[in-house]
Amino acid sequence: MTNKEKYNKVFVDCFVVSEDQLNENFVYQCIPAWDSVGHMGMIAGLEDAFDIMMDMEDIVDFESYTVGIEKLKNYDIVVD
Amino acid sequence: MFLISDDYLDRVALVCNDGYIVTYKELKWLVNDFSTYLDERSLIFLLGSNDLDSLVCYFASMDSGVVPLLLSENIKDDQLNNLIDIYSPKYIFSKRVLNNDLYLLKDNFRKSNLFSRDEAHDAKLHDDLALLLTTSGSTGSPKLVKLTKENIKSNAESISEYLKIGCDDRAITSLPFNYSYGLSVINSHLFSGGSIILSNSSMMEDKFWKSINDHSATSIAGVPYNYEMMLRLGIDNLDIPTIKKMTQAGGKLNYLKAKKVNDSLRLKGIDFYTMYGQTEATARISYLPCGNIDKKPNSIGIPIPGGKLWLEDEQGSKISDSMVVGELIFEGANVSMGYAESINDLSSEDVNKGILRTGDLAYFDEDGYYFIEGRNNRFIKVFGNRISLDSLEKLITTKGFDSIATGVDDKIVLYVIEVSNLSVADLRREVSESIGINMIAIKVTPVDDFPRLESGKINYKALNS
User: Fold this and answer.
1) CB B34 within 8 A of CB B56
2) Do B433 and A32 touch (CB under 8 A)?
3) ipTM, interface predicted TM-score of the complex
4) CATH classification of B6-364, choosing from 3.40.50.1970, 3.40.50.12780, 3.40.50.720, 3.40.50.150?
């Protein structure tokens, strides 16, 4: 799987959405599933998928699908 | 003003979401002004959140003899309309437009609207009834807890005493306003002349942590899930130098996590209290005195000041020996009058008379510290919300499925019999949205039939295995 596929799969599995919904408009609280609980589940999913531990600053700033791609760069993960 | 002394008029009461500071004097003025719109002893549905409007409406209602039912401002229309049908409130306070023709806009207050209905409202309210809270709120169950002013005041006073809350304490709201634990944080701080930072942000948002530091919060409250979030964020690295106390209630935080939290907070000089309570007792029943987490792992501690705890066996006799399990019974001035399930119940007498059967099974050790062993009723706690599994089954019936709801804390498991024209995947999302609990906590398992005991009752053990 490419990083993009891995990244998308975490969102699809966690929030039960289709891949075509994942774009810059997919942001925190845009759907009921992405609340604080869903956020924690998604972060845990990313940490497992990429075998990383994210810092608090990155977790609380992770406000959208596209911002997340930027945040992962801090862990040398390139999603494109 | 209800609950609040005039001694604190020049002090800060609230720091609003936008940073606006409200002193007790201003709060009193706003409450008095709003009270003039509430003109008879009646019911009000308060669709609120942690903001100035909701608090002013709450205190004005208490001062005017209007009885509020506190609800989430995100309550679903069908759940709201069901409660309106049952309780027929004279007033509804809400930021949103109501989808109900019976109610007309009476006035605006800041960002909120006060709606009222014209036709005669004949609910008889018991003289002592002051406040209504939901029991299993998110399932839309109409079962409410009836509280008096004395209940609220005595619990606020007791909490303030054991947590040593004073004028210099400042709590940030980290729990919903309509949730008994969230409300108790507000009541106990304002009772003590302390202050409240009004926030609706979650711990997963930068804004939450920024408010704490910008406005020098001294106290944070959380349900077990909130502490799991802090552990995930890295509790050792939390930079919150002004925080002095943190509290946990709303379900059990297991010992290993509680220890991790406690060890980390101790290094920051923060006192950590784990506590136990029920809405039926306004909020708080017991607490573990600070510093006892290692000595008394998993204990719910000792009764709050002014309260009494004891255990009864199945025959109803009091258990006098330590380490013997029985039903946990609490006595205190904060025990509610009882439940309401219909409008007629709002006039009925206090059935509890200060004594609450908690439904929890517990034992005490030789030092008199209590420990919960299990429950003898069908409730679970999910992210701090108490969920009635029976109410959940009723809700699922309305969606066209036969179901059995089971679960443990933070995990609901629904066994449903598949129906050809309905989707089980949709059911998971619909249940999640109806009860406001994230899908992560809900598992739906289709089955052909439910396992039953010879008696015909559902065999829960077979389902869980």
Assistant:
1) yes
2) yes
3) 0.85
4) 3.40.50.12780
